[in-house]
């Protein structure tokens, strides 16, 4: 039933977001109904928690829309959709934002200050130099992190609501809240109990800016200028061995020379020793298959540590550790013990305290003076490891860190992880190989400890010996009943607080978990693992993990790893991977590149439905170009949303029996074609190809509006009777179907139009099915579908004839001929009355011919043939 008072005089998109978002929230339209939930009825989504630090960008809108259209489709299919939202608010991005926003930096040595007021608030604060940031205590710093992330979370939620995400906002979580701390620490205790977590002193990738360890999954290669320096080592007999290196400043840390075992040039040197330039330290010459015969002089120096290959050589060749790089990126004050000569000690003194670049320059000067630099350095450009959020090359330092086994050194675990990846349904399928390549390429266990502040504390302490030195080999682990716990302020089990830092007492672990160590538990966090067992059993394993393709190696892999370790199963049935957003030059948009576009203004200017349409037009795994100066696809989406409103108003204005039989062949043809679209769209959604579902629906919709509506409107306006009722019933049926097909993509316009004739939300309406559209008395589906197509082509021919004659569309035609094959003219004859009415044709003749065409048009006032 149409409610005329609800249909606006001039439908518009403006204001629909605020109107419907508030009603959906009040009515609980998207609420997960736990009271009626069964495992079989639930579709659960492991929603990616966006980093709550700063602002969302257009890439978020792109990928989260992909998830939302799936959620809406499943809900309309009758599923009880569990669609939570989390906020990933711990870790380096948050700390950096707090530093910039408030003009502060954390110094754990400082005490807590009551009612602390930061020196600066607002803006990005990037103009404040690190040295000018006010140092504050850890607790004050964490409080500022809490304040700012909650503020950012509210802004994010407002934008998500404006975009129309059908999230259940009663199902939210944070990766730093009380529940996240409990879940993350409990999972870590399980890792320790099962022997999956361990502590070790080892070479560690280190970001000197953030002063923290970096995991393999967080690396990014960047091309950097460098230079090869040809340097002379000396044999006891006086022979000179030249090597080439880009890191001459690490000569004090040299522990060996290495060449390929098949390199005949150096075979006679294997097993001998040479002495290093400047520092006169004896080091062996060894063979290893990773040495490259065609790189430099073919023989290389091994230092502790210049790059990851040095780490491999150091470990596999059982070499000593003579690390000289400090955590601050400067050469440490004390020279390695093996440097004993006066000249060597003096040379090292000129490097101590310098940065990498300063030490390199000083070393080159010393080598020139000693005559051990051969020729001039040769400039090159090569790939250097960076922390993905950092702006300085990583160094490798020796530190004590916590690790979780990830299959790098455990073939059985690796095989299980590969099996889970094989069983997972990947969308698109080709993304699976990226996961397999990552698992097969792992070289070390997962480093999870970070030397930061705003994160989940590692729940361990260390006993102190009689000299108050930590006994790292015997950590004291928290018990479950203590969780969540902070070892920097809570006493270790079996100890009292006054024993902290005292001989025979304890010291708390100050490191926190890597943010991925918490984000890898999103299925458990959202599902209430160990907090709400009933809910967790309902939603886990989840139906879907949606995410970006760039974090397969981090988020997807780590989540699957934790699920395998804790539950022995994969955490999801399907994985949907969105592509990147690229700028007009086909470069990936990212905050680090400075080419991102924030979506808030776009949503206001074009409307949320238009932006959603743009996002949904791209298939999973496909990169989408975006030009903010000319957002063509968004403009098309806006035009579609407006047309949906206008077409709905037009159709609902027809009087007639909406439940009458659809008896006219042209009406049956339209519904048969629409039934085909329903089948295609449904299959596409089932295959996680939302873009195909949108494509077939939109294509039919424009034919429906441009041709079918024109063909039948005269009959729908006409005298009461079966023919009129057939048209009105077909139009109403088609409108109901099309609105539901479009609902996952343009939820605001479809809800508005649906409300004009329905009481309940379209987003709780059933997804259309083919049986709604095919009537028993309809002609064969093939012929039925062909009729509308033929009638559309005939209508185009009539329009062209009037245009060529420069006649008005309302000009009357005395007579016209439609030619076509026997089957074509036979079908078209069934739509003769509609063609005559729309074309204002007095006499329409059908003639058999070879190619369909409208000919011999004779106008009532202007004659042309």
What would you note in describing this structure?
The protein is α/β, with parallel strands linked by helices and 865 residues long. It is 38% helix and 18% strand. It is built from 24 helices and 30 strands. The strands form 11 sheets. Strands 8-7-16-18 form a 4-stranded antiparallel β-sheet. Strands 12-13-11-14 form a 4-stranded mixed β-sheet, with helices on one face. Strands 10-9-15 form a 3-stranded antiparallel β-sheet, with helices on one face. Strand 12 (273-275) and strand 13 (282-287) form a beta hairpin. The two termini are 47 Å apart.
Q: For the residues shown, what is the average pLDDT? A: 91
What's the count of strands?
A: 30
**Quaternary structure:** single chain
Measured by DSSP, the beta-strand proportion falls in 15-25%
Helical proportion, percent range: 25-40%
The Rg value, from CA coordinates, equals 35 Å
Major beta sheet, specifics?
4 strands, antiparallel
The helix tally amounts to 24
Strand order of the largest sheet: 8-7-16-18
Uncertain stretches of 5 or more adjacent residues: 779-783
* Overall SS class: alpha/beta
Structural shape? elongated
Alpha carbon gap, first and last residue: 47 Å
List the helices and strands and how they pair.
Elements: H1 16-27, E1 42-44, H2 58-76, E2 80-82, E3 85-87, H3 92-102, E4 104-106, E5 134-136, H4 138-163, E6 172-174, H5 178-193, E7 197-207, E8 212-213, E9 219-234, E10 240-245, E11 254-259, E12 273-275, E13 282-287, E14 299-303, H6 308-316, H7 342-349, H8 356-370, E15 373-387, E16 395-404, H9 411-423, E17 425-427, H10 432-440, E18 446-447, E19 449-450, E20 460-463, E21 476-477, E22 506-508, E23 512-513, H11 515-519, H12 522-527, H13 533-539, E24 542-548, H14 552-567, E25 572-578, E26 581-582, H15 600-606, H16 608-616, E27 624-625, H17 632-652, H18 665-686, H19 690-717, H20 722-742, H21 747-755, H22 781-804, E28 813-820, H23 822-828, H24 832-839, E29 841-848, E30 853-859
Parallel strand pairs: 1-2, 3-6, 4-5, 11-13, 17-25, 24-25, 26-27, 28-29
Antiparallel strand pairs: 7-8, 7-16, 9-10, 9-15, 11-14, 12-13, 16-18, 19-23, 20-21, 20-22, 28-30
